[in-house]
Amino acid sequence: MQHYDCLIVGAGHGGTQAAWSLRQQKFEGSIGLLSDEMELPYERPPLSKDYLAGTKSFERILFRPEDFWASRNIALQRGRRVIKVDSERRFVCCEDGSTFGYGHLIWAAGGGARRLTCPGSDLGGIYAVRTRSDVDAIVQDLDDARAIVIVGGGYIGLETAAVLSKQGKTITVLEALDRVLARVAGPDLSRFYEAEHRAQGVDIQLNASVQSFEGANGRVRRVRLGDGRDLAADIVIVGIGIIPAVLPLIEAGAIGANGVDVDAFCRTNLPRVFVIGDCANHANDFADGARIRLESVQNATDQAAVVAKYLTGQLEPYQAVPWFWSNQYDLRLQTVGLSIGHDRIIVRGSPTTRKFSLIYLRNGTVCALDCVNSVKDYVEGRALVAARASPPAEQLADAGVTLKSLAPHFPNVEDKQPNG
User: Fold this and answer.
1) Is the pLDDT reported for residue 13 higher than 70?
2) Which of 16, 32, 294, 364 has its CB surrounded by the most CB atoms within 10 Å?
3) CATH number, residue 287
4) pLDDT digits (tens, 9 = 90+) for 151-185
């Protein structure tokens, strides 16, 4: 059994950042990085955007070339899916029978695409957008496909619709709720994106549930809706969220009902076990202290840095300002903060210009911004969210007033957000 001073499970944004950060913080122990895929570690956000569109090759979305890992003395172990954690004897077991011991364990396994379980959900031609192999399978199927049904009107579903609509396909998006992006944004943004997609020829159907899939020769051909209607479908893409990959930790005794509960240093109740990224259920200052899971690059990489510092003697609790982004057509949406519990929305600018911002207030305090093609508002708005600022609403709404001027002690903030 191989043993590592720090074993990292998961080679996505969180796991790779944890490995890099440990070396940057002069961690001298051995590091093992386990990936359940055979690929070199790669970025996930481009999968539903540039990689699906074919404008970025796989090599361009790799975090680092192959020789990088060995040069940093990071043992990359590919094709290792962990199925058991023994927290008392400090080792993990993988699906292929291999075992790895650890001094400290960082769990950054992310999650698997949530699947539909209705009749016919096991037919061929039904895909998720979670891994490179998922997208490669979709691309290989596109030439013979005309009608594509996308289940889910969140970021993944809408980004996928934006890419495929440019390829001359008939696209239908099915959203179970009464608006798209309902879980992450206010009604104004939802209606804006619904209109944009419809203008591009995408059929957005709201309050639409899937009853079953029907097929021929083992392959999907139609989608039957809850109201009895049928839709033709050569390909179905399901984007309805993820299930955090934490079962081995829960079976080992980790506490958590939605992911695994962690403290401000990403520690679990299991000794020497940390959880970061999509799997980490943490109390977030920008959600009024509520326990949440954040499925974002920002959360994964910032929590990775917190753990790396902790393991090298630097106790800096997680306090990062959340941010997200989405590219659809020529629209770049940048979000900062969390709109959870907001009680007022201020529209800054006009959606008709396709350049505007929505500012969310909670008890008079700026808690989040959604900025469409408005990088300046995004950059300056971050300072408002970080400071929990409460400027007058009329000034926030006035596009002639810079948000920078409303932020106390505006910092020199750069937009470090990666391109998706």
Assistant:
1) yes
2) 16
3) 3.50.50.60
4) 999 999 999 999 999 998 999 999 999 999 999 99
Asked if pLDDT for residue 350 goes beyond 60, the answer is yes
Residues 249 and 108 in one domain: yes
State yes or no: pLDDT of 381 exceeds 90. yes
The strands making up 280-283's β-sheet, listed across from edge to edge, are 260-261, 280-283, 291-292
Tokens 């999650």 locate to: 111
411 domain residue, yes or no = no
Same domain, 160 and 304: no
Residue 106 is assigned to a structural domain of this protein: yes
Q: Taking all residues of the chain, what is their mean pLDDT, rounded to a whole number? A: 95
Total of domains in the chain: 3
Are both 105 and 246 inside the same structural domain? yes
Q: Is the per-residue pLDDT at 32 higher than 80?
A: yes
The predicted pLDDT at position 408 comes to 81
* 84: β partners: 93
Residue 225 confidence (pLDDT): 98
pTM (2 decimals)? Answer: 0.94
402/349 same-domain check: yes
Angle made by CA atoms 58, 63, 66, in degrees to the nearest 5: 80
